[in-house]
Design a protein that fits this description.
Number of helices: 15
CATH superfamily of the domain at 210-404: FAD-linked oxidases, C-terminal domain
Number of strands: 18
Shape: globular
Helix content: 25-40%
CATH topology of the domain at 210-404: Vanillyl-alcohol Oxidase, Chain A, domain 3
Structural class: alpha+beta
CATH architecture of the domain at 210-404: 3-Layer(aba) Sandwich
CATH class of the domain at 210-404: Alpha Beta
Bound molecules: flavin-adenine dinucleotide
Radius of gyration: 21 Å
């Protein structure tokens, strides 16, 4: 049982009415508000379009004229989704379409949750190369923001897309790949939902594999000194340094042929969450002593599981998050500076940082376009104001040429983004050609795309 159930955003009655009578959109009952997972975003869309298939989607796009925003599982912290027009919900677009065992590729419907994708692919003799911390996201939502996991040799999910189908705002169906229309393909692999609706995604996969996971505790200063070598030593390496404390949690994973051993990850997660809550209740000045004694005493753990279970066991209370990816060689210095700034300013924060490595890919707006990077995340429990922490940390990311994660909180507009993402201007030109009336834009996208 995953405690990370998403906020309900689909009102059954309104959705069923729209699906049954897709061409009478404006007669739909008043829509329920939409909220994202953390609850920091609320929108009042005019309605929700839930096409049953691609033909119905095309008809809906052709027969409507107002603003549209595709929505996945609502797990983004940045306002990519909110609209007062219609949300496009692909809850009917789920499942495995076909696999190619020779090429080791699989085509999935874009609304498939990562959790379902893992099991469907496993049954078909395939596995995704990597996954993010959780698996509640939809495939389309995840690639739209270049969602990633960790591993020096592993790309973001967008880096494993070999083909996709995009339905443009005008209702044109485009089958894209690196061979067929490479420019549109590389733009659509991380599209922010600004180019149209992605309905199918083909992924390059590999045979199923198991991972041995080792959880341990390290002195933050010591592990930062060997960060590059430690990360390179494992298939996946994830560091969570406590702010206001001297220790970090380390998760290191290697491929193994050992049989899967049932894990106690849920219990471990529960203990971790209780610790974070205790830190949160403790005055900042007293936290170092608390963290150092609690964390240094944590026993190391080990488990073996299939990749899709081993990679996505991070469960948490609601929080908000900022994440930037800095060039790989700048990671340790950037991490140190954040730890020092938060400690010296006594800024409230209970959840540890997260430090992950990601390999380069070719998608125009990928955070990893052009070279490997290190993703550093800062979290604040959702019941607290995240601004003091995020406004203190964000300029540190800028100093190291960090690129913001599109799905997480950041404050950048077109001018700064275009200096960080060399293909942003090309992306804007393509967006204008596919969506000349700007139906797919909301205020947040207009700001980021310079409109
Ligand atoms: C608890 C938690 C853990 C997370 N862990 C990680 C992590 O480990 N690594 C990481 O990189 N990120 C992580 N994220 C961020 C998350 O993966 C991204 O924000 C992701 O984009 C959310 O996917 P979603 O399905 O919820 O999409 P949404 O948040 O609903 O939408 C995201 C974007 O996708 C677009 N979109 C959705 N469907 C379509 C479609 N069919 N066609 C075109 N565009 C579409 C939307 O318009 C929007 O622009 C985490 C978020 C949470 C809340």
């Amino acid at each position: 049982m995953k405690p990370l159930s998403r906020r309900e955003f689909v009102a059954g009655a309104a959705l069923a009415a729209l699906a049954a009578a897709p061409h009478r959109l404006h007669a739909a009952p008043a829509a329920t508000p939409w909220r994202n997972w953390s609850g920091n975003l609320v929108a009042h869309p005019a309605g929700r379009l839930a096409p049953r298939d691609e033909d119905e989607l095309v008809t809906m796009l052709r027969r409507t004229s107002g603003p549209l925003r595709p929505v996945g599982a609502g797990h983004s912290f940045s306002p990519l989704v909110p609209t007062d027009g219609h949300l496009v919900v692909l809850s009917e677009f789920t499942g495995l379409v076909r696999t190619d065992p020779q090429a080791m590729t699989a085509e999935l419907m874009a609304g498939t949750r990562l959790s379902d994708a893992g099991r469907l692919l496993h049954a078909a003799g395939q596995a995704m190369f990597n996954l993010p911390d959780i698996d509640r996201q939809t495939l389309a939502g995840a690639i739209a923001t270049s969602t990633h996991g960790t591993g020096v040799n592993l790309k973001s999910l967008s880096g494993y897309v070999t083909a996709l189908r995009l339905v443009t705002p005008a209702g044109q169906v485009l089958d894209l790949s690196a061979e067929r229309d490479p420019d549109t393909f590389h733009a659509a692999c991380v599209s922010l939902g600004a180019l149209g609706i992605v309905t199918r995604i083909t992924l390059r996969n590999r045979p199923p594999f198991r991972l041995q996971t080792r959880f341990s505790v390290a002195k933050t200063e010591e592990i930062i000194d060997c960060l590059e070598a430690c990360a390179a030593d494992y298939r996946h390496f994830d560091l969570m340094p406590f702010l206001h404390g001297d220790y970090a949690l380390v998760t290191a994973q290697r491929e193994t042929d050992d049989p899967a051993v049932p894990t106690t990850a849920a219990d471990d997660d529960a203990g971790f969450i209780e610790l974070v809550k205790l830190i949160d209740r403790t005055p900042v000045a007293e936290r170092r002593a608390l963290i150092n004694s609690a964390v240094s005493g944590m026993a190391p753990g080990e488990s073996v599981d299939w990749s899709f279970d081993a990679l996505t066991n991070f469960r948490f209370d609601r929080f908000n998050e900022m994440e930037y990816s800095v060039p790989a060689d700048a990671g340790p210095a950037c991490l140190r500076e954040i730890l020092q700034a938060v400690a010296s300013d006594g800024i409230e924060v209970a959840i540890p940082l997260e430090y992950r490595t990601v390999a380069a890919d070719e998608a125009w707006l990928s955070m990893y376009h052009g070279g490997p990077r290190v993703a550093i995340s800062v979290h604040r429990l959702a019941q607290h104001d995240f601004r003091p922490l995020f406004t203190r940390v964000e300029p540190i990311f800028w100093k190291y040429e960090g690129r913001p994660h599109w799905g997480k909180v950041h404050s950048l507009g077109y001018d700064r983004l275009s200096a960080l993402y060399p293909r942003l201007g090309d992306f804007v030109a393509l967006q204008e050609s596919l969506d000349p009336r700007g139906r797919m834009l909301n205020d947040h996208l207009r700001r980021m795309l310079g409109k």
